[in-house]
Design a protein that fits this description.
The chain is α/β, with parallel strands linked by helices. It contains 16 helices and 13 strands. It has helices at 11-19, 25-38, 50-66, 107-114, 157-164, 181-187, 221-231, 254-267, 292-307, 323-338, 357-368, 371-384, 389-413, 439-442, 448-453, 486-499, and strands at 45-47, 76-80, 118-123, 170-174, 190-193, 214-218, 244-245, 248-249, 278-282, 311-315, 417-421, 457-466, 472-480. α9 links the parallel β9 and β10 (311-315). It is an enzyme of class 6 (ligase).
Length: 510
């Protein structure tokens, strides 16, 4: 059976076909389930339930027949296994939650379901979102569709791989230190991390609460608009959810309206739609460690933006390298606190053999958590302990504020957006960091600062570079904006994708 999704380049095209009854949501869901089975070697999905999926598809068909369908009705999606879902298992890629089924949906899941999306199941991820390659999952690594011997990125690796392989049209992911943007870059798809607080974290299994943010992945920027607009909005159940976004209510319609307004402005400027746009290019993003082919692809993308009328401005983000130690103190500290709830008492894995309560907790955690999670819990507990809190955690928080100030200085006085690479290299081979478990941490150098500052950022495909095996692998361009500037970021990315075709390349067919 041929893959039906290969016929469509965008969500809008597929939505029009569904509305015109050229195919039904049920037929489409059945085809997607078949594709997931045929491409099981990618290890992208960790739980599929055809009955649950087809029940949602039938509801979508009924809405289309009744004339009440929206732009996402019948669109096949899938959720990172960090979002709790009623019916499907919610494991966070961990043996600690191996058979857990939530009694409710996360807010992001609920909003997309109510918009008519048809969920195909749950996607593999690094355990509790701790990783940069999807190699730390209790269910084994997901694989990159461009080269199955390479990582798809992490922690939302399977979310990007599923879109790149055309198993679904879109997916959800989470971004704590780059985990939407990095896999999007390595798999050649588009992904956006919104401003912290723009999307509810309710029902999203916590890793680093002050850093975690949900975001969508899809083939192109235009597809991301409808998804992010639907996902975003104030949620009283999330204490970190923003009520206002620079004076505008945080509600569905905000991002779509800003995107349409920016596009209308660009369209009025003719052959140079981005005339007047100042692009900040940090010199720290192009130093030692950046692969030459990645640098060339990113430079070519920036040159294309200049051809569209934008102006390049050289800027400095002097504390870029310091984002690594700051992040890897703050995130493990928050993880140590968040994961303390998994004690074998209330829910999650409980050891079958123990002598007393303390032994039960110790054994349950040792058996349930994988090596990377244990490593980060130990680091986090250490930096929060008496005598070390001031020396490590407090200093990291001070550095965090300084990093945020660097971004603000650039975005308020020198440039409108910032552009650069997402990752220093293309996708690495699976198992490349076995001898040095912290090697992947250095690969996050261009993405961590945004999470520390709470800024929005996205990745779009901009070229290819040669991998270790000799295969051509995708390169991503990172676009960073100021707080709650998601609509304009997506419009800028859309202008680029109107004049390039990197986002249309399909794994196995490029």
């Amino acid at each position: 059976m041929s893959n039906t999704l290969l016929q469509f380049n965008s969500l809008a095209q597929l939505s029009q076909a569904l509305s015109a009854r050229k195919l039904s949501a049920t037929e489409l869901a059945q085809d997607c389930l078949k594709q997931i089975q045929d491409q099981h070697a990618l290890n992208a999905f960790v739980h599929v339930d055809a009955e649950l999926t087809l029940a949602q598809a039938r509801l979508a068909d009924a809405a289309i027949a009744a004339g009440t369908a929206g732009p996402l009705t019948g669109i096949p999606i899938a959720h990172k296994d960090l979002f709790v879902t009623e019916g499907w298992r919610s494991t966070a890629g961990s043996n600690m939650l191996k058979n857990y089924v939530s009694p409710f949906d996360a807010t992001v899941v609920r909003k997309l379901r109510e918009a008519g999306c048809v969920s195909l199941g749950k996607l593999n991820c690094d355990e509790f979102a701790m990783g940069s390659g999807n190699e730390h999952s209790a269910f084994g690594p997901a694989r990159n569709p461009w080269d199955p011997s390479a990582v798809p990125g992490g922690s939302s690796g399977a979310s990007a791989a599923a879109v790149a392989a055309k198993l679904v049209m879109a997916t959800t992911g989470t971004d704590t230190g780059g985990s939407v943007r990095q896999p999007a870059a390595l798999c050649g798809v588009s992904g956006i991390k919104p401003t912290y607080g723009a999307v509810s974290r309710y029902g999203m299994i916590a890793y680093g609460s002050s850093l975690d943010q949900a975001g969508p992945l899809a083939a192109n920027a235009a597809d991301l608009v409808e998804l992010l607009d639907t996902m975003s909005g104030f949620d009283h159940r999330d204490a970190t959810s923003a009520e206002q976004c620079q004076g505008v209510a945080n509600a569905p319609g905000r991002i779509r309206s800003e995107y349409q307004s920016a596009n209308a402005q660009y369209a009025a400027q003719g052959a140079q739609p981005l005339k007047g746009l100042r692009i900040g290019v940090p010199r720290e993003y192009f130093g030692d460690g950046l692969n030459n082919e990645v640098a060339q692809a990113v430079e070519a993308a920036i040159a294309q933006f200049e051809a569209l009328g934008a102006k390049r401005v050289d800027i400095s983000l002097p504390r870029t390298q310091l984002s690594i130690p700051a992040y890897y103190v703050i995130a493990p500290a928050e993880a140590s606190s968040n994961l303390s709830r998994y004690d074998g008492v209330r829910y999650g894995h409980r050891s079958e053999s123990y002598t007393d309560l303390a032994d039960m907790t110790a054994r349950s955690r040792a058996e349930g958590f994988g090596p990377e999670v244990q490593r980060r819990i130990l680091i986090g507990t250490y930096v929060l302990s008496h005598g070390y809190y001031d020396a490590y955690y407090l200093q990291a928080q001070r550095l965090r504020r300084m990093i945020a100030d660097d971004f603000q200085a650039a975005l308020t006085t020198q440039c409108d957006v910032i552009m650069g690479p997402v990752t220093p290299t293309v996708a690495a081979p699976i198992g490349h960091s076995q001898d040095d478990p912290t090697a992947d941490w250095l690969a996050d150098v261009y993405t961590l600062g945004l999470n520390l500052a709470g800024l929005p950022g996205m990745s779009i495909p901009c070229g290819f570079g040669r991998g270790v095996s000799g295969s051509q692998l995708p390169v991503g361009l990172q676009i960073i904006g100021n707080y709650f500037d998601e609509g304009r970021l997506l419009a800028i990315a859309h202008q680029y994708q109107q004049t390039t075709d990197w986002h249309q390349r399909i794994a196995g067919q490029a």
